[in-house]
Amino acid sequence: MSDVVVVVGAGSIGQAIARRVSVGKEVLLADLRAENAEAAAEVLRDAGYNVTTASVDVADRSSVRDLVQRATELGDVKGLIHAAGVSPSQASPETILHVDLFGTAVVLEEFGGVIAAGGSGVVISSQSGHRLPALTPEEDRQLATAPTDELLELDLVRGIEDPLHAYQVSKRGNSLRVKAEAVRWGKRGARLNSISPGIVYTPLARDELTGPRGAGYRRMLELSPAGRGGSPDEVGAVGALLMGPDGGFITGSDILMDGGVTASYFYGELAPNADA
């Protein structure tokens, strides 16, 4: 049977990772919008990749299960790239929590039941999860291990009204969920990690940079140690490390790559009291 790499989310970052880890494999590229998946697939096909497309709503377990079945019909699932999500400028708190928090947990749970030995996965989280104030150990445990269908009923999740706070909680939840799921994936001989990018130049980032919080995001770039945003290819290089043989001893980890924005937020010019 063929080795299959599943890409959930047809955006620039998912494509960048897929190009590095999918040579000679079957790629199943899924997105909420079929036209987005097909457009990205055409680019990959033109570069010599074997690509099949599908539609998926990660916030709908039955839709994710259909995608899992489609993947296993193609071959052995050796890779999962989960890059689907919505941002604070794109969606309501409810939608963010359903897609970014619950949806990610569903994808990891369902694909964790079929990932092949020697396989690996990577979840695209966000720097925002690192700037959320510390949670209690019990809250961390709940985000990591609560039954997936109960995630949205947790006390720290219910009643969130601010999109940014919903996004931060969701992304903190992603990295914690990856830690817990990595234990389960390990029993199948597979690895799982996450990447928390900062501002990477994608359509989603463009929405943020031109949205209601745009001035703040532009200030982040100006005052960060790197002094710039990132590129999808830079995230793709880290994704390839985590999914490939050179990353064989890395699992249950989150890689923060934000040009030093988070470091500056805590200890530099971006700190809330820096001008005090």
List the helices and strands and how they pair.
Layout: E1 2-8, H1 12-21, E2 26-31, H2 34-46, E3 50-55, H3 61-74, E4 75-82, H4 93-112, E5 120-124, H5 128-131, H6 137-145, H7 163-186, E6 191-197, H8 203-209, H9 214-223, H10 232-243, E7 254-257, H11 261-267
Parallel strand pairs: 1-2, 1-4, 2-3, 4-5, 5-6, 6-7
Considering the chains and any ligands shown, give keywords for the structure.
single chain; about 280 residues; alpha/beta; 7-stranded parallel sheet; about 15% strand; globular
Would you mind describing this structure in some detail?
The protein is of the alpha/beta class. The protein has helices at 12-21, 34-46, 61-74, 93-112, 128-131, 137-145, 163-186, 203-209, 214-223, 232-243, 261-267; strands spanning 2-8, 26-31, 50-55, 75-82, 120-124, 191-197, 254-257. Helix 4 (93-112) links the parallel strand 4 and strand 5. The longest helix is centred in the middle third of the chain and has 24 residues, at 163-186. The radius of gyration is 18 Å and the shape is globular. The mean pLDDT is 95.
Number of strands: 7
As a percent range, the share of strand residues is 15-25%
Number of helices: 11
Oligomer: single chain
Order of helices and strands: EHEHEHEHEHHHEHHHEH
Largest sheet: 7 strands, parallel
State Rg. 18 Å
* Unreliable stretches covering 5 or more consecutive residues: none
**Structural shape:** globular
Spatial strand arrangement across the major sheet: 3-2-1-4-5-6-7
How far apart the termini lie comes to 62 Å
User: Which structural class do the helices and strands define?
Assistant: alpha/beta
Mean pLDDT: 95
The level of helicity is 40-55%
